[in-house]
Amino acid sequence: MACLLLLALWSCAIPNDIPFPVVEGRISDLAVDGQCDANGKAGGSVIIDRTSRKVTVYVCDTVDIRSLKVNKIEVKAESKNQDVVYEDEVLLTPDSAKCINYSLFPRKSFLTPPSGSDTRMDCSGWVHMTLTTYQDYQWTLSVEQVVKREVQMENQVGEAVIDAATHNVVVYVAKEQSLKKIKVSKFSIGGEHGTVSPDPTQYDTYDFYDVQKFRVRTGWGEEQTWKVMVYQTDQTVSTTASAFARTTSATISGSKPNDKEVTIEYRRADASQWTTLPAGNITTTATTYTAELKGLEAATDYVYRATAGDRTTPEATFSTTRMLPLENGSFDKWSTDPDRPKLYCPWGQGEDSFWDTGNQGATTVGDSNSIPTTDTSTGSGYAAYLASRWILIKFAAGNIFTGSYLRTDVTNGILGFGRPFDAFPSHLSFDYKFHSETITKCADENLRYMVGRPDSFQVYIVLWHVEDNEYEEYNGNKFPIVIHTRPSEQRLFDIHDKRIVAYAQLTQGDDVPEWTHHTLTLDYRRTDVRPTHIQVVASSSKYGDYFTGGPGTLLVLDNMQLHYE
Known about the structure:
Structural class: mainly beta
Oligomer: single chain
Number of helices: 2
Shape: flat
């Protein structure tokens, strides 16, 4: 009887083998004390790589990264399953070995450290954090401290070798330079805010015949002992020069003998008279220099040379790029599809597309919401009328972008962003009018807090440099990035993408009833590569790719132009 009862109970058991939905936990923002950019300038932004789940932040040399205060962490849940809403908060588990006080570190998002918490962490190495939803996701925090150490001595050959790990410095000087009497012009081995004792720059000359020890106090208060070794060498530093040209500017850089001033001269290739670059446009270290030439003519050949002491480089040439206009930036060209009369396209009939819209998706269930209008800022032609609407079953923001609408995935879009482009514009200008409605539609639980707020529009420009092996491909078409708006396969634009050369954007939620002119200034993150693509995107609702916004919100755009300085 007992055996029969046991068998009955076993036969009634239902295995719980239904998998949990996939909800990814991710870090969307983070801030720490002393935050700066990679060059040490205050206020740098955090770099978030969602693919590798790594966060990188730079800090200046006035904070102790062994006890660094985290001022903000925002974590979010992102569902990979359509129609699955994750209502719980994401659990944050910090690295216990790195927390100064593990029990007092918050276990969820915070915009400011909660009262009674201790958010200090030892960030001298990588810090791991685990975000828990239905699954665990491990993220890594890397804090890189920008400490500007520099040594310059009389007759120095090459840059000083400064080893912060061993606190050793090796400097080479010319054979004829006496080691007992060396003039030292720079000696910031403790960093920009550190101090050195004794300070050899305070003496007429300093004796480096033997290994010298110095007491260093860093900008974050650590006491260190450094060794400096100076050796004579037969090697010499020659004067070199190389150029990286843009549309109306160029960078000349190279090496030079120590303690020698650099003179940069340049001229048009078809001219005979040289122009000498002002000394204020040249930045130097002990044996290197970088010079900025501005106000050049586009699509022009130039000749340049550099002189340091009695050494002048051979004449060399560079060519500036042409000033490329923004194709159909007037938004005058529109056409309709003969087979789909409701589908408006932002290019002329029978022409190749440069711009596109999300109209292909919108017209599967309704009318185009990105259309031409004769209400223009110039009084002629057309403008782009971008309207946010609730189209039968889904919210859709009016939008226009350089690229191609590739396919509709049920009610979601797959888009290819970017068009070939190889110039260096400095500004993007446009005329616009805007009307904001209250956000009432929200398909993303992480944006639920925005419901009831005024909607905002966004216009942004990106210059990409994409290598041959870095393109994203969809059905044989290659783009810098392919966008997927379907929540379970979501792939959106990442402002921190390392392939971005320059970026600028405007986001605004106030009503602008009359035509207004606005100019964006591009922030160039890289000046060592030429752009390969341009991406301009405008949306009547900033979070339209999350299907969030206010029906009735309207953005009208006209007269969009690129400018070059």
